Amino acid sequence: MSELDAIHEDEQMLVLEKPAGLLAVPGRGPDKQDCLSARAQARWPDALVVHRLDMATSGLVVMARGLQAQRALGRAFEQRQVHKRYTAVVAGRLHNPMPDNGWNTIDLPLTIDWPNRPRSIVSAELGKPSTTRWRLAAPSDGHTTRLELEPVTGRTHQLRVHLQAIGHPILGDALYASPEQQALSPRLLLHAHELELPHPLHGAKMRFYSPCPF
């Protein structure tokens, strides 16, 4: 196990930097036990999982310290008091039709694609309401576009499926991009760069940033 980068540490919660390629929680099998939560618990035995990032995604993850803090942070997620922003690089030129680079919305219902797990798909019949907001993070170079993303809901692979659905998969995405788009990056170009949430003890709003590694 390698050392963890702790962005924030106090008696109630941890904000950690998850590298791309590391599981957030243990998977099935002895080869999938090294993960962010196991590394955190080796250093902070009272650390508890609150949410997770996809294995291929890097960036900010909050963990609670103790059951009371876990319940408080869990409530904050349920009540949508936690706000996350991501950086992504997608295939193709994406133009923002909103003035002053305002936020655009993708509203497409998502569900797990059971015959092809772990993939998710857009489904009007079976999908749960799913909303993603996006705007440009930089002008397009004509072949790719850097975006800032804000998930309003938290479905499995939501950002990845929504961007694929509008014709702009994330580069390096082994599940949703074409072989040519996968080959443009050795990793998924998706990074959780900002996290805002109420502190589990006193409720004060806290905001954390992680520089994008790509």
Compact summary:
The chain has 214 residues and is α+β, with helices and mostly antiparallel strands. It has four helices and twelve strands, in the order ββαββαββββββααββ.
Rg, please? Answer: 17 Å
Query: How many beta-strand segments?
Result: 12
Task: Give the overall shape.
Answer: globular
- CATH homologous superfamily placement of the largest domain: Pseudouridine synthase
How many angstroms separate the termini?
24 Å
Largest sheet: 10 strands, mixed
User: Approximately how much beta-strand content do the residues carry?
Assistant: 25-35%
Name the CATH class of the largest domain.
Alpha Beta
Class by SSE composition = alpha+beta
**Average pLDDT:** 96
Structural features, described:
By secondary structure, the protein is α+β, with helices and mostly antiparallel strands. The chain folds into 2 domains: 5-81 and 196-209, Pseudouridine synthase; 85-190, Pseudouridine synthase (2-Layer Sandwich). It has 4 helices and 12 strands; from the N terminus they run E-E-H-E-E-H-E-E-E-E-E-E-H-H-E-E. The chain has helices at residues 36-43, 67-78, 158-165, 179-182; strands spanning 5-9, 13-18, 47-49, 58-65, 83-91, 104-107, 110-112, 120-122, 131-136, 144-151, 190-198, 205-209. The strands form 2 sheets. Strands 1, 2, 3, 4, 5, 6, 9, 10, 11 and 12 form a 10-stranded mixed β-sheet that branches. A hairpin with a 6-residue loop joins strand 11 and strand 12 (205-209). The longest helix is centred in the middle third of the chain and has 12 residues, at 67-78. It is globular and about 45 Å long.
